[in-house]
Structure formats: C-alpha cells, structure tokens
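Quick illustration for those who missed Monday's session on complexes.
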Amino acid sequence: MASITLNKLNKHYGSLHHAVKDVDLTIADKEFVALVGPSGCGKSTTLRMIAGLEDISSGEIRIGDRVVNNLPPRDRDVAMVFQNYALYQHMSVYDNLAFGLRNKKVPESEIKAAIDRAAEMLGLHELLKRRPRQLSGGQQQRVALGRCIVRNPLVFLFDEPLSNLDAKLRAQMRIEIKRLHSQMPTTSVFVTHDQVEAMTLGDRVVIMRDGEVQQAGTPLSVYGQP
Ligand code: ADP
Ligand code: ADP
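Prediction with adenosine-5'-diphosphate bound:
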C-alpha cells in the first residue's frame, strides 16, 4: 500500500523565497498523478521532498501509513526518474542496473533475475553490454526506467523524464511508462509542463501555481473537452 499524503507541506529557500506553500494533497494507492504548472511553480521541489532529496521546511509527508519526513531516500521505497537519465558513463548497462542492488548486498543470482525481468519489460536484452554513450536518448531513458524497476519501488517519481526526447519518441515512451505503471503495484507522480503528457498519463492532473495547488481533477475536468 503506497498512498502518498502531503499535509501542509512547505519549503522555504532562505528567508524570502517560499517555493512550496501549505500543499495538501492525497494521492491514492496505484494512482497516476500528473503534476503540472509553469516553470518555477514548485513541482520539482515537491517531488524532491517526496523522494527525500530535499529537506522539508514544515508539514508532513506520508507514504502508506509511514511518516517519512526524517527517512533517507533509500528507506522510502521510492524510485525517481530524472530528465538527464543520471546513468554511470563508465559502467555497462547491466552494471548500471545492478548498482543499487549490489550496494544493498543482494545476491548476484537475485540481481540477475531482477535485471532479466526489467530487460524483458523494457526490451533491453540486446543493450546490456553497452555503455550509456553507445545508446540513443530513448534507450538511455529506458535504462534509467529499468534501474528504477529493479528496485521494486512502491512509488515512481518522474521529473520531466521525456523533455530531452523528440516528439515521436516522447509519444512512444508515454505509452511505455503507462504500461509499466499498470504492470507494477506502484503509485506514480509525473512532473511535466506538457499538457499532452499530463492528459494522456494522468488518472488525475494536479496544477500548481506559485507554490500552491491551484486545481486538481481528472484530465477532462481540468482541461475540458478533448
Ligand atoms: P518547477 O519544478 O515547477 O519548475 P521548482 O520546484 O524547481 O519549480 O522551483 C520552485 C521555486 O524554488 C523556483 O522559484 C526556484 O527558483 C526556487 N528554487 C528551486 N531550487 C532552489 C534552490 N536550491 N535554491 C533556491 N531556490 C530554489
Ligand atoms: P542503495 O542501493 O544503497 O540505495 P544507490 O547507489 O542505488 O544505493 O543509491 C544511493 C542513494 O540514492 C540511496 O539512498 C538510494 O535509495 C537513492 N537512489 C538511488 N537510485 C534512486 C532513484 N532512482 N530514485 C530515488 N532514489 C534513488
């Protein structure tokens, strides 16, 4: 069970800059929420606070029935996909996929099984021996997704993961991400400034403005008739 609950969540940068203001939001278990809004409205900061990559200033974050405010990222059962893929350039795709599990001292046989499964889901088998620089942008983003899948997270956090891809690939990856979400028992939060992405991916769209939640609802109720 991994609902996400934000209670009066605030983030100040310094004394003047109030980046996230009293955000109250409940995301249901297995829901796919698209978090949208203009640049600088606080989307990424909110996502990074859920991941534990950014300290909160005040409020509460719950994942499932646990308050995670003071937990480090590795104890939150979240996996985050970044815009720039964040792959290790000097390692093969296989070793990139294995890295986090090796750190946790997971046995190699289990690591191999997890990588086989992720490679199957993402069509990565023929790429496992390559280095990231020998991959296209779309392939690199699939590896980044694979690195999240092998962690078996309860929550997927996406920070504009498709922004560096061309339009055709973006459309393909949207379908792929939606399929992955439906195949795994995960709750997903997807930050984007792209309305098409928000409409096609989100069960619900949450619009932020100036650090606050301005509106939330189904894509149809937020954006009107298609
Ligand atoms: P978005 O993801 O919606 O574009 P962000 O969450 O990145 O917005 O940023 C929200 C606000 O907080 C912006 O005004 C941004 O400039 C500011 N901000 C983000 N990170 C920092 C930081 N490390 N230090 C100071 N201000 C920051
Ligand atoms: P570990 O297996 O010890 O978690 P990693 O090197 O994979 O080691 O990760 C280092 C830190 O970054 C850990 O706290 C981990 O939970 C976190 N981390 C790694 N990958 C991700 C990811 N995709 N999303 C969110 N956090 C991550």
